[in-house]
Every structure is written in structure tokens, then in C-alpha cells.
Amino acid sequence: MQAAARRPRTNHLDLAQRILDVARQRGFEPGARLPEQQIASLCNVSRTPVRAALSLLAERGVVRWQADTGYHLAVDLTAQSAISAELPAAEEDELAEAILRDRSARRLDQTVTAAGLMRRYSAERKTVLKALNKLTEENLLDRAPGQSWLFRRAPDDPEAQGESYEFRLLLEPAAILTPGFRLDGARAAALRQGMDALSALPDAAFDTREFQRLDMDFHGMIAEGCANRFVADALADHLRLRRLPGIYAGVNVFRLRQSLLEHLNILDHLESRQYEVAADLLRIHLRLSRNQRPQAASRGAPALFGMISRPE
Amino acid sequence: MTRKASPTIALFPEASFGAALNCVGIAQALRAKGARPVFICHAGFSGVFADYGFQEYQLPTDEPLSDSERQSYWQAFVRRHLPHFRLSPIDQLETYVAPTWQAIVDTAVNAEAPLRQLLARLKPDAVVLDNVIMFPAIAAAGCPWVRVVSCAETELPDAEVPPYLSGMGADDPQRAAFEARYLSASAPAHDRFNRFRVDAGLAPLPKGLFLESSPDLNLLLTPTIVRRERAEPLDPQRFVYLEGCVRSEGPFEVPVFPRNKGPLVYVAFGSLGAMDVGLIERMLAVFDRLPARFIVNVGGLRDAYRAVPDNVYLDAWFPQPSVVAKSDLFIHHGGNNSFCEALRFGVPSLIMPYCWDGHDNARRAEETGTGDHIGRDGWTEGVLERAILGLLADDAMRARLRDNAARMALQPGTDVAAQAILSLIRT
Fold first, then answer.
1. What is the pLDDT of residue B74?
2. Is the pLDDT of residue A85 over 60?
3. Distance separating alpha carbons of residues B372 and B353, to the nearest angstrom
4. Do B271 and A297 touch (CB under 8 A)?
5. Smallest Cα–Cα separation from B369: which of B417, B325, B403?
6. Are B416 and B378 within one domain?
7. A309: which DSSP letter?
8. Domains of chain A with bracketed CATH
9. Kindly report the CA angle at A124 between A118 and A129, in degrees rounded to 5?
């Protein structure tokens, strides 16, 4: 949470989403009061943009205004996907999502230019630049010479996925073991509730996107609880790459369910301050989560792991 | 006589995704019926079954290859065999089939000692072998064993059934010539395998055969709609047809495409076929101008593609049964699992075979009106376009396949397989 607070967002849509995130992390239930001053303080912004963001949420029916007591939460925030759908995305946010989606599908090359994106998406220059800036701020893109940008390498091929897990194995348990680790109790409770609800769904209704949200939030919570800011920032940057489309593809439901159980077990030990056990369990969780599926197999041939270069 | 409360069933699929995932389906059904399915797996396949919640026992090998050696092996394999996949089935006999049989014999020889040790330790109540070759250790395991014929039905020879791997019709005038060349090409591997069998205490097999039928139970995936009449019908006591054998996967959410209109076409050629980047690139150029959306499995080679069309989505892996269930057409290599999944969900197949029984399934799809096929070599953009649009527009085929899928759904092959396997076990 601290990492995000250090880089406050300015537009009202972002702030509205941020308010919902904070309310969820704090375990706010339907009907809970949302005092402007408290929200402003939690989101590290002034009251004026908070008022505008709450007004936006009120228009969508997510919060309710009462003349005598102010804003109240009107919905159950554990139903995250429904709430997200309520909020319209800003033009540049939609464009940023489209850019990520198209890069993931290799419709875009690793290097893109503003002019090329304007043509592809029939978008104005200022919208394209805002979207590119947003992605650059989130460390998904790097500015390259001229009017071009370079996508950072995502963990979306076997080799990069392996490196990603090695990186996380080094740093995530260390984040817990570094003296001063602090668990956000309200966020942990909301996560537990979300994971229990997802676990209860039958296989046919299992929501992979909800798993992705919970997984990102769980590992993000550990990163942000770390007292060492450099470790926290390095992890936050890396975990953001896992938000890219396609990263969670190909994991079957059985493994995702196991993963939820492992999260809950780690959470138990974090809440009881058994940090060494929690770090060990996290190490095991990461090792089990690493995809072991061979890249290629054929009768009589040894299964292939890792990359093979493009056959000529 | 009563059955053991939780019998241990050891499933031993060959090291290919088709057999592995087919066995996952059977194991899921066995687990649902209270049995304890476990997997015996070749090096490199451990982890695949654990991800579905099954205990794995990896066969140790004397000389495991390092990661870089495996990569070198595959670079050489692909460089050597990609050109062979463009040959006719008969011309693949010496170039691809013969060396593959030699490699398969190697796997059986190398697995024998560790497999005997493992089975002696595991003491399973039954062994399920999904492979194309026999492992003498299984016959000596002291429990019933089950053969899963997860290739096309042609794997079991019969006068009325076309030769295995030929892609021929049953009455093809070139049949005898193919059979003679097959026997000649496979003879060195076969002779070596028979010597190994005799040394291991098993009788030699007739020429061309590498795996006998089980005296206990044999399971064939072949659904009724593509089944063949046999001159010598199979004994229904020992041979059970499964109507496909489709595993259960989680839900699949169709991605949003920038050009998000038209029927959905799923393209997957298996992990080996995904290495034919040149062929897939040529196909993408055709997809770009068609009024449909295409989901394409490109394995680990996504970075080999650039400027992918707006109606195409590439990824490394899909929960295939769940994708096929939402598709209007399935373009595949004729792998038997893929063909059965298409039939199970009432989806026409456009088969572009590159080897093995893919040729047989390609021919059978055309013969039975369950799809169409085009060769991997020599096709033009117009041929591919007409084949895709023709199948998408064939309402009569679609209606027939839908009715057939409803019948297949009534009796899932995985359940039938589990029931038949458990019926072998008595205490």
C-alpha cells in the first residue's frame, strides 16, 4: 500500500478505484461511512478530488449520499469484478489496456512509436502519450530514443517465467524475514474472505480473473509489508509485470485451488507472526507454482524444457 | 467377492501430451469413483500430473540429458524432421517412422529395470498402459493390465481397416505396397524389440507389431461416428469403446479481439506441430482476410511471430477441451485426442496432418463427414480459405455433429474407462 501511496494518482477514475481498494482492504461492509477526510488521508490526497471521486461512485450506485451523514458504501466490495464494471475507464486507460493486450498477442512489436499507435488506434496524440506515460510510470514500458517506447520483458515465455520465479524466490521470503515486516490486517482479512469465496465455487464456475486479482493482491500485500523500501519497490515493480494479459493462461483449476489453500496457510502464519514458517511456506508455494509443463514432447523423444529457437 | 475400498491404479502414459492428458481424464474419473490413481511418468513429464492433483512416480533414467542437451536434441530433431512432415505417409516410413520406432524401442529398453523396481514397490491393483509399445515389466507386475488404444483405431490391424499410419482408405489398391514398405522400414527396430522381449521373458510379436492386446482389458477411444466395421470383430469382453476420453478442464474465457466478429476457430497442432512456425505464419496471412476469429496455440514460440492479425490470438497453452467447446471449427493435426474432443463437442475438424495416425484421422474425417483435411504441403491460400469457409457454412454437418455430441455426452468415455478398469479388481 505504501508503494502506491508514494505515487498518488490524479484523475478521478483512478482515485475512485483507489477508494474502493482502500475500503476493501479495510474490510468496509455495505453501509459503512466513508468520511471525506479519512478517505483523503488514506489515499494521500486532498479532500477536493476525493469529493469528485465519491460523486462519480455515487453516480454509479457504488456509494450513497445522505445529507446528514455523508457518503456510505452501497455495495459488497468482495464482488470486485462487478464493481470494476461499474466504473467507466478513462480513454487513456482503455488505450493502455488495448496496447498491453495487443503486445501480449504479438500484434505489436517490442518497440512502438506514438505515431504508429495513433494510426493503429485512431487516437489523438495526447491520448496516446497519456497511455504511454501511464505504462511507463508502471514500469511496463521504457522510453527509447526518438518518439519510441520499448516494452519491458514480461514473464510470458518459459525462460522469462523461470527467471521471474527465481527472482521472487529470492525476494518474497526475504520481504517477510526482513525485520520490521508489518501485515496489513484489514487487507489480509479481506483477502481471506475473497479466497474463501473463490474456493467455494465449483470448477465450472471458477473465476480465473478473480484468482489473478487475489493472487496479485496477496503477493503485493507481502511486498508492501516489507520494511526495506528497496525490496518492496523491486517486488512491486516485478509483480506489476504479472498483471499483463496472458501471464496466468494455462494454469489449471486444480493447481489454482491448491494455490489458494497455500495462500491461506501462509496467511495463517503471518497473522500469528510466525514469520519464519510463513517465509518457508511461501518458498514452497512459489516452487509448486512454477510451471513444469514441457514445451514439446513426442513419441520416443525426451521432453523439452526451456526455449527452442525458431526453426529455419 | 468385493472390490478393495481404494484400489491403486498406476497409469503409465507415453511421454506425449495426447496420451498424458487422455490418462488425466481417466484418472479424474477413477478418483471420482474412490480409487487412488497414480502416475508413472517418464523424465520430463513429472509435474504435469501433479498439477491435476495426482501422485507421480518418475522413472529414473541412467543418462538424463541436461537442459542444454535437450535443447540441442530438439533443435536437431526439428531441423531434421520438419521437412519430413511435408512428405506423403508412405514416404515418411523410412524418414520419420523408422527412426521414431527405434527411439520408442530405446524408451522401452531403458525403462524396463526401473519400471520393474517401481511396480514391485507400488504393488498396484491394476496398471493402465497408454503407449504404442509393450513394457515387459507390466506383464510381470502380477496384476491386471489395461491397454489404452489412444491412437486411431488403425493401431489394431484388421483386413477391413486401413494400414496403420497410411492415411489410406481400406480398399486402397496401394495397400499391399504400403504394408510391405512399413514392415521393411520397421524391421530393424522390430527385430531389436523382439530380442529384448525374449530376454525379458515375453514371446516375440508378429512383424510390424510392437504391442499386444491385453488379456484383461483394452480401451479404444474411437467414437461410434468414426468407427470401422472389422472383418474380425473385437471381443466385447476384452475390448471396450469409450466414445472419446475427454478430461475435465476449467472454464475458458474467450479473449477480446480488436476485430471481434465472426465464428470462433481454434488452431492447435500439438507441441511438435507448433514448431512449424513457417506454416503457421502462412496460415495467419489467410486468417487475416477471413470473417472469423482465430485462437492459435503456438507453444513456446510466441516471440517468433510479428504483426499478428487483429482477428488472431496467440498463446502458449490452452485448456483445450474448454476452448473446443466454444469453437465453431477446430483446425488440428489429427491427433486422436484432438479429433475426439472435436467430436465430443460437435465441432467440425479441419485436419492438417504431419505424421503418425494424424494421416489416418484426416482420411477418416473426410470419409465420415465429420470434417475435412488438407495436406501440409502444396496448399494454396485459396485452398485453405475455401476449406475453412466451407466447413463453417456446412449447417448439415454441424447439426449432425451436434446430435452426435449429445449422444457422446450421455456416456463420458472417462467414466466408462474407469468403470471397466475397476471391474477388473477383486480381492
1. 79
2. no
3. 11
4. yes
5. B403
6. no
7. P
8. 2-86 (1.10.10.10), 91-151 (1.10.10.10), 158-289 (1.20.120.530)
9. 75
Interval B404-415: pLDDT, tens: 999 999 989 999
**Does residue B192 form part of some domain?**
no
Q: Is pLDDT above 50 for A4?
A: no
Q: Can you give the pLDDT at residue A10?
A: 45
Q: Are residues B237 and B382 in the same domain?
A: no
Mean pLDDT of A124-136: 93
pLDDT value of position A283: 97
Beta-carbon contacts of residue A173 (< 8 Å; ≥ 6 apart): A279, A280, A282, A283
Cell of A253: 483449476
Q: Which three cell numbers stand for residue B83?
A: 521437412
Q: In Å, how far is A155's CA from the nearest CA of chain B?
A: 12
Select the residue of B79, B132, B274 nearest A299 (Cβ to Cβ): B132
Statement to judge: residues B331 and B418 lie in one domain: no
Pairwise CA distance, residues B16 & B23, whole Å? 11
Q: Do residue B349 and residue B301 come from a single domain? A: yes
Q: Do B102 and A300 touch (CB under 8 A)?
A: yes
Query: B221 and B110 in one domain?
Result: yes
Same domain? B16 vs B156: yes
CB atoms A307 and B317 under 8 Å: no
Closest partner residue to A310 (CB to CB) among B70, B248, B277 is B277
Return the pLDDT at A306: 61
Digit-coded pLDDT (tens) for B291-349: 999 999 998 888 899 999 999 999 888 989 999 999 999 999 999 999 999 999 999 99
What are the helix and strand counts (H, E) for chain B? 14, 13
Q: What is the mean pLDDT of residues A199-225?
A: 91
Cβ contact (<8 Å) for A302 and B44? Answer: yes
Residues of chain B found within 8 Å of residue A205, distances taken between Cβ atoms:
251
Task: Give the number of domains in chain B.
Answer: 2
What value does the mean pLDDT of chain B take? 93
Which residue in A105, A203, A249 is closest to B317 by CB distance? A249
Q: How far is CA B117 from the centre of its chain?
A: 28
Residue window 62-91, chain B: list those with CB within 8 Å of chain A. Answer: 65, 67, 70-71, 73-75, 77-79, 82
- Same domain for B20 and B158: yes
Q: Is B203 part of a structural domain of the chain?
A: no
CB pairs under 8 A between A and B: 170
**Out of A249, A294, A300, closest to residue B100 by CB:** A300
Cα separation of the two ends of chain A:
48
Per CB-CB distance under 8 Å, the chain B contacts of A204 are: 250-251
- Give residue A28's pLDDT band: very low, low, confident or very high (50, 70, 90): confident
Q: Do B308 and A312 touch (CB under 8 A)?
A: no
Which among B48, B258, B314 is the nearest to A106, CB-wise? B314
Tell whether the model's pLDDT for residue B194 goes beyond 90: yes
d(CA A235, CA A216): 11
For A296, the 3-state DSSP assignment is strand
The pLDDT of residue B251 = 85
Domain that holds residue B277: 264-410
Predicted-complex ipTM score? 0.81
Per-residue confidence (pLDDT) for residue A6, from 0 to 100: 33
How far lies B356's CA from each of A115, B164, B167, in Å?
Answer: 49, 8, 9
> What is the model's pLDDT at position A88?
62
How far, in Å, CA of B152 to CA of A215, rounded?
A: 42
Split at pLDDT 50, 70, 90, the class of B100 is very high
Q: What is the CATH number of the domain that holds B140?
A: 3.40.50.2000
The reply to whether B95 falls in a domain is no
Same domain, residue pair B227 and B332: no
CB contact under 8 A, A98 and B258: yes
- B15 in contact with chain A, both atoms CB, cutoff 8 A: yes
Measured CA to CA, the distance from residue B41 to residue B47 in angstroms comes to 9
Residue B146 has pLDDT above 90, yes or no: yes
Domain assignment of residue B395, yes or no: yes
